[in-house]
């Protein structure tokens, strides 16, 4: 077999491999650009939501520490804290009861 034929086959094979690599690179680039487009949409939604949250935070006022509050104010804050804790406790009990009912429905447990 002549040497030029071997080199010709090798050159054609190399061009084929390069074409395959180029095609895969092109497809990967297109997929990357599609993901970048989706990321831009998500970023736009995030910026919109962030602006809404900043407006809400500005309207709500700043949280000021009340280290030097008098006794009446401290009692008021303790009452608010107790209310918040009782609401959280009630929600926790309700979640537990719902989960227990679901588990009983799944397992067929009658509780006896």
Describe this structure in words.
This protein is mainly α and 112 residues long. The chain has 2 domains: 1-56; 70-112. It contains 2 helices and no strands. Residues 29-56 form a coiled coil.
Task: Sum this structure up briefly.
The protein is mainly alpha-helical and about 110 residues long.
Based on the model shown, name its key terms.
coiled coil, mainly alpha, single chain, 2 domains, 112 residues
Summarize the topology.
Blueprint: H1 3-60, H2 71-107
Keywords: Coiled coil
Coiled coil: 29-56
Strand segment tally: 0
Tally of individual domains? 2
**Kindly state the mean pLDDT as a whole number?**
91
Would you list the SSEs in sequence order as H and E? Answer: HH
Strand pairing plus helix content: what structural class? Answer: mainly alpha
Distance between the termini: 90 Å
Shape: elongated
Main sheet record: none
Residue share in helices?
over 70%
Approximate strand percentage: under 5%
The number of distinct helices, counting runs of at least 4 residues, comes to 2
Low-confidence stretches: none
Give the C-alpha Rg: 33 Å
Keywords: Coiled coil
Coiled coil: 29-56
């Amino acid at each position: 077999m002549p040497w030029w034929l071997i080199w010709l086959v090798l050159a054609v094979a190399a061009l084929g491999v390069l074409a395959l690599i180029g095609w895969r690179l092109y497809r990967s680039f297109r997929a990357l650009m599609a993901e970048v487009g989706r990321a831009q949409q998500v970023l736009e939604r995030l910026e919109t939501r962030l602006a809404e949250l900043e407006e809400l935070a500005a309207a709500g006022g700043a949280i000021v520490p009340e280290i030097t509050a008098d006794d009446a104010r401290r009692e008021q804050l303790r009452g608010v804290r107790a209310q918040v804790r009782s609401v959280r406790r009630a929600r926790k009990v309700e979640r537990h009861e719902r989960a227990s009912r679901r588990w009983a429905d799944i397992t067929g447990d009658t509780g006896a």
